[in-house]
Amino acid sequence: MKQLKDLSLKELEEFYSQQKKEYQKYLDADITINMARGRPAPEQLDLSDNLLNLTRADIGVKDSAGLDCRNYGGLCGLPECRALFGEIFGMPASQVIIGGTSSLNLMYDYVSQCCTHGVGGCEPWMRNERRKFIAVVPGYDRHFAIAEHFGLEMISVPMTASGPDMDMIEALVGDSDVKGMFCVPKYSNPDGITYSPETVERIAAMKTAAPDFRVIWDEAYIIHDLYDQGDELANVYEFAKKYGAEDRFFMVASTSKITFAGAGLSAMAASERNIKEITDRLSVQVICYDKINQLRHCRLYRSMEDLRAQMKKHASLLRPKFDAVLSVLHEQLDGLGVASFNSPRGGYFISLDVNVGSAKKVGKMCAECGLTLTGVGATYPYGIDPNDANIRIAPSCPSVSELDTAARILCVCVRIAACEALLGLN
Ligand code: PLP
Question: How far, in Å, is the centroid of ligand 1 from the Cα of 222?
C-alpha cells in the first residue's frame, strides 16, 4: 500500500471510512485490556514461587560469614548477595550494598542525600535555586518524578540509536548548575536501546563543570535479554577509572523483574568514596534491610548461571508477547508513513512514535475501546511530550491473544488519527 499522504482524496476518504468501521467493531466489543505498566505476568511470577516454599531447613538462618540473619546487623547486606550483585554490576562485592525491595527507593534516597546534605564534599544541591538535571527522552516517568520532586529543572536530551545525544550532553555539562542525569543504559525504558561502548565511554570521559555531577546508572534491565544473544553493555566503571570519574556513578539494579516485582532485592554500587558516604547516611536511616529475603534469594540463585537460567525462562514467556505486538504493528503500519517503532532485544517495552500531534488522540481513542496505554506524555518530563508523538507499549502482562487485539486497536487508532490529520478533521 502507498503512504497515506500519497493517496488521492477519494482513496484516502475510502480508507478512512474502512478504518472507522473497524474501530466501531472494537467500540462495540466488550474489551478491557491494560497495557499501562511493565508488570511481569502471573506466569512470570510463578517462576519464583520456590522462594515461597523455602523452609528454615532449606535456608538456615546464617549467612556465609556466620551472621544470624534473624537479628539486626549486616547493614550492607549478605556477603553472598553482594558478590552476586557485584557480578551483575561488574563491580567488587565490597562496593555493593544490598537494599530493600525497590531500586527506585535507592535512587530517591540518593538524590535526596545529594539535595539535602551534598555529596563529594560539595554543598547540598538544594542550596542552588537553578539546579538542573538532564532527562533523556523518551524516558522513565518515575525518574522524572524524582527529579521534579526535588525541584531539579529537567532539560530534555533526545535518545539516538546508540544512546543519548552525547554532543548535547557534553555541551550541557559545561554548566555547573547541571547536576546529573538518569540513564537506563541497557534496554532503555521505553526505547529498548543499549548504549554503545562509545557512548558509555563519553559519559565517563566528559568534563563536567559541577564536581558533584552524578549519573544515576539504572541497570533495571541488565540481564533481561529476550534472545540468547543479548546486547552487550560496556562496563562504565572501567571507563570511569580510566578517566578518574569513579565518583560520578551511582549504579542500581533489582530483582523486581527476575523474581518478585516489588518484593525482591535491590542493590546499589559505586566508588569507595560514594559507598562510604552512602553507608554513613544509611547507618542513620536503617538498622539493616531484610536479610531473610536476601538469604532466600541467595539460596535459590547462587550464581550468575542460576540467574541466567531464570532469565531464559522469563524470555520464553515474554518473547511471544513482543512478537505478537510487533507482527501486528508491521502488518498494519509498515509503508503507510504514519508511525515508527523499535524491535527491542530485551527489556520490557516497545516505543511507538506516531505522527506529530496525534499520540494523545490515539491514547484517548484506545481508552474508549477499553484499552489502557501508558499515559501519553508520561515518557517526557512533566508529562508533556512536546511533539505529542510517543506511545509506550508494555506487552508483558496481557496474554498473547489480548496483545493481538490490543495491537490491532492501537493500529486502527493510529491510522484514523493520521487520516484525520491529512483530511483536516482535527
Ligand atoms: N528503573 C526502571 C528503568 C524501571 O523501568 C523500573 C520499573 O519499571 C524500575 C526502575 C523500578 O524498579 P524497582 O522495582 O526495583 O523499584
Answer: 11
Separation of 104 CA from ligand 1 center, angstroms? 6
| Mean pLDDT, range 190-215, rounded to an integer | 98
Using one digit for the tens of pLDDT, what is the confidence trace for 225-254? 999 999 999 999 999 999 999 999 999 999
Cβ(38)–Cβ(396) below 8 Å: yes
8-state DSSP, 371 = E
Task: Find how far residue 246's CA is from the centre of its chain.
Answer: 23
The answer to whether 8 and 408 are in contact (CB under 8 A) is: no
Q: Please list the alpha-helical segments (H only) found in 174-235.
A: 197-205
Over pLDDT 90: what percentage of the chain?
A: 99
> Residue 38: CB within 6 Å of ligand 1?
yes
The pLDDT value given to residue 426: 73
- Counting from 1 in the atom list of ligand 1, the atom nearest the Cα of 257 is 14
* Bridge partners, residue 156, by sequence: 135
Q: Cell 533495571 belongs to which residue?
A: 220
**CA of 103 relative to ligand 1 center, distance in Å:** 7
Whole-number Å distance between alpha carbons of 198 and 333: 33
Strands 371-373 and 33-35: parallel
Dist. CA 45–CA 420, nearest whole Å: 42
- Residue 374 CB less than 6 A away from ligand 1: no
The predicted model scores a pTM of 0.97
**Under 8 Å between Cβ of 396 and 374:** no
CA distance 402 to 170: 44
Q: Please list, residue by residue across 377-388, b when 16 or more beta carbons sit within 10 angstroms of its beta carbon and e when fewer do.
A: bbbbbeeebeeb
Is the CB of 259 within 6 Å of ligand 1? no
In this prediction, residues 141-155 reach a mean pLDDT of 98
Cell of 390: 510517543
Q: What is the pLDDT of residue 317?
A: 98
